[in-house]
Design brief:
Structural class: alpha+beta
CATH class of the largest domain: Mainly Beta
Strand order of the largest sheet: 7-8-9-10-11-1-2-3-4-5-6-15
Number of strands: 19
Number of helices: 5
Shape: globular
Number of domains: 2
Length: about 325
C-alpha cells in the first residue's frame, strides 16, 4: 500500500513539474524578447528574401551585420542578375552603395529606427513589443507573432507574421502581408550568430565599396544605352499618361513620362554609362525608403532610385509621400501601359 502511495505521489509530482515547464504565455515571451534586446551587442545573419510582384517573384540573398548601438551593414544581392546594393550605417551617417554603378549616396537619416525592417532582428522585436494587440501562437519548435508593421506606407503592407526559434528566440522567418493577407515579402533566416566579432574596417564606407567592387563579375560597358521603358502598374484614380518623350543625353538616354489628373506626376528614366567611382558620396536630401527590390530616397515632392542600371525619379507637387512610394514600387513590376 505504501509503495502504491509513493508511486502515486511520484506520478503527481511528474505531472506538476511538466505542467510548470509547459507553454509560456505571450507576456513571458515578450518579456524574454525585451531582455534579449537589452543584451544584444552584435550579430551576423544570412537570409533569403523573396519579393512577389504581380505574377513574378525575385529572390535576394541578404547578409546582415549589426554592432551595438548604431553600426549596420546590410548587403542585398540578386544572384540571378549579379546586382548588389549595400546599406551602411556608421558614425558618419547612413550610406547606400551600388558598386556596379560606382555610386554611393549619403543620407541624414535615423534609419533603421524610423520603420519596420523585415531582415533586422531588433526591428522585429520592437514590432512585437510595441504592438499591444499582437496575436500569439506556438508550434512544436516556434513562437509565432502576428503584428502591425511600422512602414512609411503602412496601408500597403499592414501585417506581418514573425516566427521565432523557441530555443534562443532567434528569427526563423517573416512574412509581410497586404490587407488581403497575401505575403508580398518573405524573409527566411538561414543562419544567425549572436555576439559576432568585427574588424574596425567592417563598417567603413570606402573599404566596403572597394571590397564589393573587387567581387563584381567582369561586365562590359558597351555603348548601347537602350533599355525597356517601364510604366507604373499603379496610377492614382483619375490620373493617366498623356505624354512620353525620349531623348539622348551625354553617354546615355532619357525617357520622360507625364501623367496628368487630380494627382499629376512626372516619371523620368535614364540609363548612362557607369562612371569612375568618386571617393566622396553624393549627399541626398530626403529619407531612405525601402522599395523592396532597391533602396530609394524620398522627400516631400520627389522620390528617386536605381534598379538594373536604370536611374528613376518621380516628381510631383500633389502626390503624398505614400502615393509616390506606391507608384515607385509599381514601376518595378510588370512593364505595362
Amino acid at each position: 500500500m505504501r509503495k502504491k502511495l509513493l508511486l502515486l505521489m511520484t506520478g503527481l509530482m511528474v505531472i506538476f513539474v511538466l505542467a510548470a515547464c509547459g507553454s509560456k504565455s505571450q507576456q513571458d515571451v515578450v518579456k524574454e524578447l525585451n531582455g534579449k534586446l537589452d543584451d544584444l551587442t552584435s550579430y551576423k545573419a544570412e537570409a533569403k528574401m523573396t519579393l512577389k510582384m504581380g505574377t513574378d517573384s525575385q529572390v535576394y540573398n541578404v547578409e546582415i551585420w549589426h554592432k551595438d548601438p548604431t553600426f549596420y551593414r546590410v548587403n542585398l544581392k540578386n544572384a540571378e542578375k549579379d546586382q548588389s546594393q549595400m546599406i551602411l550605417r556608421n558614425d558618419e551617417g547612413v550610406f547606400v552603395l551600388t558598386p556596379a554603378l560606382n555610386k554611393s549616396f549619403k543620407f541624414q537619416s535615423d534609419w533603421p529606427q524610423n520603420s519596420s525592417q523585415a531582415y533586422l532582428y531588433e526591428s522585429l522585436i520592437k514590432d512585437i513589443v510595441m504592438d499591444k494587440e499582437a496575436k500569439f501562437s506556438e508550434t512544436k519548435g516556434h513562437y509565432v507573432f502576428e503584428t502591425k508593421t511600422r512602414y512609411q506606407n503602412n496601408s500597403m503592407l499592414p501585417i506581418q507574421e514573425i516566427k521565432l526559434n523557441k530555443k534562443d528566440l532567434s528569427p526563423v522567418s517573416v512574412k509581410v502581408m497586404d490587407p488581403d493577407r497575401n505575403a508580398l515579402v518573405t524573409v527566411e533566416f538561414e543562419k544567425v550568430t549572436f555576439k559576432a566579432n568585427f574588424d574596425k574596417n567592417d563598417f567603413d564606407m570606402k573599404k566596403n565599396m572597394t571590397r564589393a567592387q573587387l567581387n563584381l563579375p567582369a561586365m562590359a560597358d558597351g555603348g548601347d544605352q537602350s533599355f525597356t521603358v517601364k510604366y507604373p502598374t499603379f496610377e492614382p484614380k483619375g490620373t493617366k499618361l498623356v505624354e512620353e518623350k525620349q531623348s539622348k543625353i551625354e553617354d546615355g538616354k532619357r525617357v520622360v513620362l507625364t501623367y496628368e489628373g487630380k494627382k499629376s506626376f512626372t516619371l523620368v528614366q535614364e540609363k548612362v554609362k557607369s562612371k569612375v567611382a568618386s571617393t566622396t558620396p553624393t549627399y541626398v536630401e530626403g529619407d531612405l525608403v525601402d522599395l523592396g527590390i532597391t533602396i530609394g530616397a524620398v522627400n516631400d515632392h520627389s522620390i528617386s532610385w536605381s534598379n538594373e542600371g536604370i536611374d528613376y525619379m518621380i516628381a510631383s507637387k500633389n502626390l503624398t509621400k505614400d502615393e509616390m512610394i506606391q507608384v515607385a514600387k509599381s514601376v518595378s513590376g510588370e512593364a505595362v501601359k
